[in-house]
Amino acid sequence: MPRKKKSRKIGQIGTPLAPKTNRKPAPASPKRNKKTLGKPAGTRNNPEQTNSQSKPNKTVKDPRVGSKKPIPLIVDNKPKAKVAKPKFFSPAQELESIEQNERFALLLEKLDSDVALTRDEKAFVNKLTARHQELCDLLGIADEDDSPENSESSAENDLYEQFESIDINKFK
After folding, report:
1. Alpha-carbon span 120 to 113, nearest angstrom
2. What is the pLDDT of residues 43-63, one digit of tens each?
3. Is the full-model pTM beyond 0.70?
4. Fewer CB within a 10 Å sphere, N or C end of the chain?
């Protein structure tokens, strides 16, 4: 088998093309639309104006995503702490907690000594005294000042009626 000698000349590789003037035009393929991912650049800061022009009565919605809650620029010195309301299993426990409340006791001492209370302190005292009175009425506890001495015998006779009058739904 004869061998060909290597040469540095570049010959034609493959078939030669016809001149451009003689070529047939390639069939025009329909252009494919690229799939777009997301919105075009700048839409966050430039809301669409076509929607606002077509519906002038509708309120303009802010297209930006995120929290609209205003951030306070000035820090208050008074932190607002939410006090969790304790849940009681019985009215007796709630009455006991009201009677053991130190703040309530101090404010009652101020009232007894005729010291002026602030609006918040007055509201707190009024709220707790009203709740204390409700619980005393519910449990059948009468004030010592208001009850006459003969009430012991009448209370013993009416124990069954008091038991019947208690509404159990209030304890749930």
Report:
1. 18
2. 777 766 555 455 556 677 777
3. no
4. N
